[in-house]
Design brief:
alpha/beta; 7-stranded parallel beta sheet; about 325 residues
Length: about 325
């Protein structure tokens, strides 16, 4: 049986990756920060007791954090790295954000090279943040585009997140080029990730940032006025999860970045769909004649993800319905 290590197993995307790995027949080991989180994952998959287990990695940014986790008997064949450093209060952009992001990414690569020679490929969750160019958007966004942010610009707290994702992904590609390890690399670069939350890991207070706009919408936080959309590209979490698994199943995925997006959305479009799919929330939704703030300034090219990984993206209508349904389950 093919064996996979999935880091950050209790994260929003990772929870869906677990489901797909098990469905596809992989023996799966997840890293979590605590026994409690690991036990939640195991209990949620009673049918997979023989194929699912966890190891604890308390701080992914520490030197050698993954050294023990990657050692396994039988050994691992693949690693999916979704874990990202966990902290609340950013005082120092370098110490609190940039260093942990970069070390968290290169740390897993170093550990695999040193202690897991059987691993054939590492797939890393990067982000559209490593692609976007807010100062001068290209005509079409694709995997060929990199965020041009500089280290100096990253000292600005408003830019440090995007910078951390950019520098972390670049560090991963540099590592593979310079160190010539036993594995190749693929990266998954999604924009805003929407979709159903898993009840065993979530409360309404603890849902991922992207899905908070759905919670706010149906709780009436935008009843008087629709909030600005902000970022306009999106993807369903289940498609992102499948992209990670396909990236280890499809040999041609090695050495590639994948821009994973279903296209454009706006808060107005989400509200309109919610009005159709969940009329019980009508009184809490923003006015039906709210202005749609969708831009028309750039395009996107997601063809590589469709051709190489075989992705067929879910519609915004389906994602909105399924996301709201999942929020109702955890107690809207």
């Amino acid at each position: 049986m093919v064996k996979v290590l999935l880091t950050g197993g209790s994260g929003f995307i990772a929870a869906h990756i677990v489901d797909i790995l098990l469905q596809h027949g992989f023996e799966t080991v997840v890293t979590v920060r605590s026994e409690e989180k690991g036990d939640h994952i195991i209990k949620a998959h009673p049918e997979a007791k023989e194929k699912l287990s966890y190891v604890i990695v308390k701080d992914v940014a520490k030197d050698g954090a993954f050294d023990e986790a990657v050692k396994s008997n039988p050994p691992f064949d693949y690693v999916l790295h979704t874990a990202s450093p966990f902290h609340f209060n950013v005082q120092d952009p370098v110490k609190d954000f940039l260093d942990p992001a970069i070390k968290g990414t290169t740390g897993i690569l170093k550990a695999v090279k040193a202690y897991a020679p059987t691993v054939k490929r590492v797939v890393i969750t990067s982000s559209f943040a490593a692609i976007v160019n807010p100062k001068q958007p290209p005509e079409v966004y694709s995997e060929k585009v990199w965020n041009p942010v500089t280290w100096e610009e990253a000292m600005d707290h408003s830019q440090v997140y995007r910078a951390s994702k950019t520098f972390a992904e670049k560090a991963a590609w540099d590592f593979v080029e310079k160190e010539k390890p036993n594995f190749d690399l693929a990266t998954i670069n999604p924009p805003l990730v929407f979709g159903p939350v898993v009840p065993y890991l979530n409360s309404l207070e603890a849902i991922n940032t992207s899905n908070q706009r759905f919670r706010d919408l149906i709780q009436g936080a935008m009843k008087e006025k629709l909030a600005p959309t902000g970022n306009f590209l999106w993807v369903d979490v289940r498609d992102v999860a499948l992209a990670h698994v396909k990236a280890i199943e499809v040999s041609e995925a090695g050495g590639e970045r994948f821009f994973i997006t279903a296209g454009f959305f706006s808060n107005k479009k989400i509200a309109d769909i919610a009005r159709e799919t969940h009329p019980e929330f009508e009184e809490k939704l923003p006015p039906a004649d709210s202005v749609d703030d969708s831009p028309n300034t750039y395009g996107y090219d997601n063809s590589k993800s469709q051709k190489v990984l075989g992705l067929e993206y879910r519609s915004l209508e389906r994602t909105v319905k399924d996301t709201i349904d999942s929020l109702v389950v955890i107690g809207v």
